[in-house]
Amino acid sequence: MIWPSSRDLMFGRVLWFSPVVFLLVLFLSVSAAQAASGRPQLQLTGEITQAENKALILQVGLSVPPIRFTCDASPVLMRRYLQSATLAARDALQAMGYFNAQIQTHLKQDPDCAIPTMDITPGPRVHIAAVDVVVTTSAGDDLTRQAFLRDYLKKARPAKDALLNQGVYVALRDGIMERVRGAGYLDAKWRRRELLVDPKTNTADIHLDLDAGSRYHIGKITIDQSIIKPLLAQNLVGAKTGDTYTTQTLVDMNQNLSSSQYFSDVRVRPQWDQRTAHQVPITIRTLPNEPRSYELRVGYGTDTGARFGGKITQRYVNRSGHSWKADLSLAQRKQTLGATYTMPKISDPLNQHYDLYEVFDREQDTGITTLSSTTGLRWVRNFNSWTSSLYSEYLVDRSQFGTNPAQTTGFWLFGARLGRQELNDPLFPTKGFVFSSGISTAAKPLLSSTSLLRAHVMLGGLYPVGKWVFKARTEVGGVVTPDFNSLPKSLRFFAGGDQSVRGYAYQSLGPTDSTGQVIGGQYLFTASAEVMHPVYGRDWWGAAFVDTGNAFDALNNIHLNTGAGVGIRWRSPVGMVRVDVAYPFDGDQRTPRLHLGIGAAF
C-alpha cells in the first residue's frame, strides 16, 4: 500500500484508498505543510495491507515515528529511520498478538523522492492458553469469590483460546487493582503479574497474583460546616467511624450531603498520609447553600388547562435543620396554596422526617365546585427504595354538585401511604415501574361528618423489547361508608382524562345524579396498555394505546368505558411531552379527543 505523494495531495490526482488509510495519512503527519517541504512518505506493503487487517494497519501507522527529514536526506539517515520504524512496528504487532511477524525494509527509488518502504507479513496470531488470577487477603480470604471482583472477572477475563491483545491484559490487570483498592484494600500489591508468550507455539499464559493485604476502615470524620448541629451533619454523612472504607462510601457521603439542600458544594477528602491502624481519617469541606430559593412554573395540560405556579423554599431555619416551603399553583380548573414545615429526625435524617402542612384548594370543573382546607402532620420514612408515611389530617370541605345545595363537611383522617419508583430515566423512562398505595379512615365520633374506610392502589410499568417499549398501568380504589352523600369530592372516585381513560374528559366518568351531573363513585377501576417506538432519531416516538375503566357505586354493576388512539412522545429538555388523540367507544359523544401533557405520566 502506498501513501499518497505530496503532488497527489496538492493537485488532486485521483487515488483509491480506504478511510482507515486516510486516517493513517493524517496520523503520519501528511499535511499540506509537509507536502510543501518535500518530505518522503512511508509505504506499507505485504500481507498487512489486506482488507481484513485494517485495525492492524492503524495500530502500526499510529506507532511508527513521523518522518522529519526531506527528500534530499542521505540514504544513511533514511535507513536509520527504517530501523527505528521497524522496532516500533514490531512492538505494535506484538501488542496485537503477532510475535512471528516478518518485516523487510528498503528504499524505493522515485524520480522525485526516495520512498522508505516496509513489507510486513503479520504471521499467525498468539492464542491465550491459560489465565490464572489469584487475589487473597492477609487473612487468606479469596476475593475472587466476592461479588465486587467476581462479577468483574466474568466480563473482563479473556477466554481460553482467545486471540491475544495486550491491551486486554493491561485492562484486566489494572481493573483488578482498581477494584481491590476501591473495596478498601489500600495496601494491595502484586506478588506476580506476567504475560508469558511462547512464540514457538503461538500461545500465551496470563498469571496475576495479588496480595490484597488488610482492609481499611473509616477513621475520624471531620466536617467543616457551621449552619446545622454537628450531630445532624454527622448523621447526614451516612457513614461513621469504623465502617468499611470503599470508594463507593466516599461517593455516597458526598451525595448525601449534597442532596440535603444545606450545602452548595461538598468535598470529601480521605487523608491518606494520616492513615494508621488500618483507618483512614476523612475531612469534608462544605460551602453553605443560599438560605432561600425561588421557582416559577408555567405549563399546560388538557386536564388542568393553562397553569402557572411558584414556590419559595427556606432551606434551613435553625441549626436543627428545619425548613419550610410555600407553593402556589394557579390553573384554569384548580387553584392550590400550600405550606409545609419539615423537621428531619436528628438520629436518622437521611431516611426520616416530620411534616406539618396546610393546603387550601379551590376547584371548579365538570359542574362541581369545591373549597377545601387540609391541616395535617405526617411522618415520612424511606427504607430499601420504598417511601412510606403515616399521617393525621383534618379536612374541611365545601362542595356543590351541579345545582344541588352546597354542603360543608369535616373529616379527621388517619392514614398511611406506601410507594416505590424504579425508572431508568425519570424524564423519559423506557424501563421500570411505579407503585403507589394509600389507606385512610375516619370515625364519626371523632369530629367527622361520617365514618369511612378508603383505599387506593396504582401500579404501572415499562418493559423494552428491542426498540419497542411496552407500557401498562392499572388503578383500583374503593371507599366504604354508611353515608356516601356526605363525602366531599376529594374522597370520591372519578375516571377519565389524560392519566386515566383517554378519549374522555377529565373526571367525566362515574355515577350521575338525577340531573345527569357526574357525582363520583365508591369504587374505581382503570387499566391501560400502550406501546411506543422511535420514529425519528432518539427524541421522537410514536405511541398507540387503549384505556378502559370507570368509577361506580356497586361491585355487581360495573360498566367500563374504553378509549383508544395514537400519540407522539417528544424527549424535550424539560421531560416527556405527550400529544395523544383518542377515540371513545362508549357514551353519547363519540368524537376524537386531544390530550396534551408534560411529564412521564402513569
Description:
- This protein is an alpha+beta fold and 602 residues long.
- The chain has four domains: 6-121, Ubiquitin-like (UB roll); 127-213, membrane protein fhac (Ubiquitin-like (UB roll), Roll), CATH 3.10.20.310; 217-288, Roll (Ubiquitin-like (UB roll)); 292-598, membrane protein fhac: a member of the omp85/tpsb transporter family (Porin), CATH 2.40.160.50.
- Helices cover 16% and strands 45% of the residues.
- The protein contains nine helices and 25 strands.
- The strands form four sheets. Strands 10-11-12-13-14-15-16-17-18-19-20-21-22-23-24-25 form a 16-stranded antiparallel beta sheet, with no helix packed on it. It has a three-stranded mixed beta sheet with strand order 1-3-2, covered by helices on one side. Strands 4-6-5 form a three-stranded mixed beta sheet, with helices on one face.
- Strand 14 (352-365) and strand 15 form a beta hairpin.
- Helix 2 (19-27) packs parallel to helix 4 (54-63), helix 4 (54-63) crosses helix 5 (75-95) and helix 6 (147-156) packs antiparallel against helix 7.
- The two termini are 60 Å apart.
- The model is unreliable at 1-37 (pLDDT under 50).
**Quaternary structure of the protein:** single chain
Distance between the termini: 60 Å
Q: Which range best describes the helical content: under 10%, 10-25%, 25-40%, 40-55%, 55-70% or over 70%?
A: 10-25%
* Structural class by SSE content: alpha+beta
Q: Strand-residue fraction?
A: over 45%
CATH superfamily of the largest domain: membrane protein fhac: a member of the omp85/tpsb transporter family
Strand order of the largest sheet: 10-11-12-13-14-15-16-17-18-19-20-21-22-23-24-25
Provide the gyration radius in Å. Answer: 35 Å
| Number of separate structural domains | 4
Mean pLDDT over the residues: 90
Report on the biggest sheet.
16 strands, antiparallel
CATH architecture of the largest domain: Beta Barrel
Strands, count: 25
User: Class of the largest domain in CATH?
Assistant: Mainly Beta
CATH topology category name of the largest domain: Porin
Number of helices: 9
Poorly predicted residue ranges:
1-37
Shape: elongated
